[in-house]
Amino acid sequence: MASRTGGCLCGAVRFTAAPPLRDVVVCHCSRCRRQHGHVGAYTEVTAADLVVASGDTLAWYVADHRERGFCRSCGASLFWRRSGSDRISIAAGTLDGPTGLRTAAHIFVADRGDYYEITDDLPRFPAGRTSRRP
Question: pTM of the full predicted structure?
């Protein structure tokens, strides 16, 4: 599998992620819904496998041991990581296509917004499916 590239809406932040990328997990927690305006959909790599090629406008919002990377120019949400983690989640929609990824599961469905239903047959987890969370 080849490296994947991606970036923000305005193009000021560009990155490359080396394989393997985890399949996409959809997060329904209230923090992701507030960050994205709906659910968050993330793939994941080791932090060492993510290279930000241009990122002068990349900024991080840090709260409660959670870090969210975004573009200061266009506001695009790009990354998520637990402080100190060796893994980093990449917002799937920021990857250039084709990605070759598939959606694998839904997490934090107990926090799902009351304005939508989950209609697929993918695995669902009331909280996180592992100790890591997007």
Answer: 0.92
